[in-house]
Amino acid sequence: MALLNFRLKDTPAPDMPNPAVEAFLQDYSIEVMPRTAEKIDNFRDLLPAGTRVYIAHIEGTPIEDMVATAARLNADGFKVMPHMPARIIKDKATLENWIAMYQGEADVKQALLLAGGVTTPHGDFSDSMQLMDTGLFDKRGFERLHVAGHPEGNRDIDTDGTRLRVDDALRWKQGFSERTDAKMAIATQFAFEAQPIIEWADSLKEAGIDLPIHIGIAGPAKLQTLIKFAIACGVGPSLKVLQKRAMDVTKLLLPYEPTDVITELAAHKAANPDFNITNVHFFPLGGIKTNANWAIENGGASARPASAV
Predict the structure, then answer these.
(1) pLDDT at 241 over 90
(2) What would the pLDDT profile of 138-180 be if each residue is shown by its tens digit?
(3) Burial class of residue 11 (count of CB atoms within 10 Å of its CB; 0-12, 13-18, 19+)
């Protein structure tokens, strides 16, 4: 089984998208940061109308920059989903202020709740469950809440390499979804092999966790860039695959594209319509334009940019 797909930049893309892949890419989402969003003149030239755009909140990013990016994307007709990283939110009053700013200036009704990549919490919160327990997301009319998932586990949470604590947290979040009106889904860290992803998704379903999964996929990027982000994000088994590839100088200079992993997942979804992975979430590690163009090439008319509608 091929783990990664490497295609030379001058190799022409297929004229007709794979129907299963085209269906799998319906309603895909993508992630930006305020500083990367500033480099894009017009998102409508790149993304389908109504695309969900996550805004990653990295430690040190002013909330004003986050809200300004959200307002811009909302004005362009995109569904805005900012990150709410528990460990960089000082207290309930700060969270309430952030929510008020997002809703007042950018009409935000969706959020990704996560612990965040900070080791030491800045204040009262250390995980996303504590954010949910504040009741603020119920009271302020959020229509959709996403939570983090880890197909390869999370060593920061389960230091023994198991998934016990991560899965217990997902069971709690499953219960939260059942006792509130919020539409919820799991948005995952990126991974590169289809079969382990399938096995992980199936294991959640067997455990009674039936939240829809939006699978994280790394967009086209140079292999060196991919390895850098994989290390920073704590990607486990997949990192070993990348490092092995990097030892081959002939492949080091070739761009990575997510063709194989998406094709395999799409084929599995087509054969198993009840499969709990429902959407693709792109991490545009090689650039937003590069990722968006890849999606257009592989998603055909269904992934055409908003300005072409």
Answers:
(1) no
(2) 877 899 999 999 887 655 665 555 566 788 899 999 999 988 8
(3) exposed
Kind plus residue range of the DSSP H or E element containing 282: strand 277-283
User: 63-75 vs 92-106: helix axis angle to the nearest 10?
Assistant: 30
Extract the tokens encoding 88.
Answer: 């960089």
Spatial separation of the C-alpha atoms in residues 219 and 282, rounded to whole Å: 6
Q: Report how far residue 264's alpha carbon sits from residue 279's, in angstroms, rounded to the nearest whole number.
A: 14
Which of helix, strand or coil describes residue 112?
A: strand
Q: Where do the domains of the chain lie?
A: 5-300
As beta bridge partners, residue 54 has 31, 81
Between 3.20.20.220, 3.40.50.720, 3.30.830.10, 3.40.50.300, what CATH number should domain 5-300 receive?
3.20.20.220
Alpha helices in 145-193 (DSSP H): 164-179
Give the per-residue pLDDT at 282. Answer: 97
Give 156 or 285, the one with higher predicted confidence: 285
pTM for the whole thing? Answer: 0.88
Q: What size, in residues, is the chain?
A: 309
Tokens coding 177 = 């979804």
Whether residue 251 is predicted with pLDDT greater than 50 in this model: the reply is yes
Q: How many CB atoms lie within 10 A of CB 72?
A: 17
Alpha-carbon span 192 to 265, nearest angstrom: 11
| Residues near 26 by beta carbon (within 8 Å), at least 6 away in sequence | 279, 299, 302
pLDDT, tens only, 88-122:
999 999 999 999 999 999 999 999 999 987 889 99
DSSP string, 32-67: E-HHHHTT-S-GGGTS-TT-EEEE---TT--HHHHH
